[in-house]
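--- STAGE predict ---
source: upstream dedup step, 1 unique chain passed
mode: sequence only
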Amino acid sequence: MNKLNIEINENIHNKHIDESVAVDIKNLSFCYANNAEVKVLNNVNFNMRYGNVALLAGMSGQGKSTLFSVINGVIPNVTNGNISGDILVDGKSIIGKSIGDISRVVGSVLQNADSQIIQPIIADEIAFGCENIGMLPMTIEKKIIDSCNIMQLDRTHKTRTLSGGQKQRLITATTLAMGQKIIILDEPLANLDMAGSAMLMLSLRRLADKGYAVLVIEHRLDMVIEYVDTVWNIDGGNIDKVEDKSKYLENQSVEIEDIVTEKVSNDILFQLQEVSYNVRTKSILEDISFDICKGERVVIVGENGCGKTTLLKIISRLIKPTYGRIDQNINSKFGARKKGCKEWYKDVGVIYQNPNYQLFMPTVEQEILFNGYSLEYCQKIVDMFELGSLLHRHPQSLSEGQKRKVTIATVLAARPKVLLLDEPTVGQDYASLKLLINNLNQIHIEEQNTMITVTHDKRCVGAICDKAVKLRRGIIQEVGGKELTL
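--- STAGE serialize ---
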């Protein structure tokens, strides 16, 4: 069994400065316009203070992102609904204020990094927000330098070449550069590796020690809880302050079964031979060579930006390698170097890092049935993933964690021979994580499929791994067993 044991360091920082209230929410209730019968937030009282890092935790779909949208003004300025109560930011009510006015005080880091990045170069992206609030050019230049140093970014890099984790760091850098004293981050660790997560949380801790108010909405409690002062739990639209954060983490943690699988076959399914991938003069992958056997569970690990997602895209035939080749033994009719086709993707199921790219039907039910193997098999997947209550919901109305679960269920419903998963556990609370991993392993045993997974999630990586491929700066550092994932 992989037990999620975390040591909590209660002395990571010292109390230091005045802790006046930055955000004070009083008797807040909210329901969305298209579902007026359900109160997503129910008479909520919540606050965050200057000089503190607060954590908002709870199961997927309970209203964390809704509270985020209330504080930054997206609700009700963009998203309609019925709202009552009051929201005080820096001592002033924001009811009736525009998003522009609120954003001068509140900095927001969204779950979906792609939706916030609009400039082609990192430095320009950071400068954009600063220019919009009227900073002087010399000040902006200093902000670019400082925020890139904090987030360990190269200001000259193109934003479209960044990995998911690097994009997450970039939008955090743009928020820090704008200088708002209240910062809210929604799942900021979603695509960050261990080092990147620790770096971000330490940076946020230091900002709070300088007088900032920071709210982190996050499921990876083990990565954040030692850095925070206050923990709030949301459940059924109600928010309560947690008195004992160590006990809270212990209660939220779960045991994930580590199955031992018999090797289905020694037959090689994919053979990668000196695979390289370049974007113009920049090398992303170089001389990648290893084999994947039929029925194996392969995990690709490594730091942000080392080429994991690019390698997964090459194996899945979403992109072609610049050099080298991949021989496949799924079916001879697919050849060696052709890009994927409709028939290929019946056998090769791909779960993207961003679930929004895969959801296009008007209901969850239609998503699952779209490429489903049979009605009976689709129902089995719905039951396994406990999606019955979501079947008539529009996929884009779901939380990010729910969207992730739906995309995985949709691909599994087609019964692919090969399953490629890019950060499948993002947005999953501990109970959902256990359900997801157990289901993936159960289906793996039943279907004898081949699973290839990219993940940073230390909570579960060992439980879905027979072989690990460790990348570093675009090259293979090591190939071995699950000990490489620890």
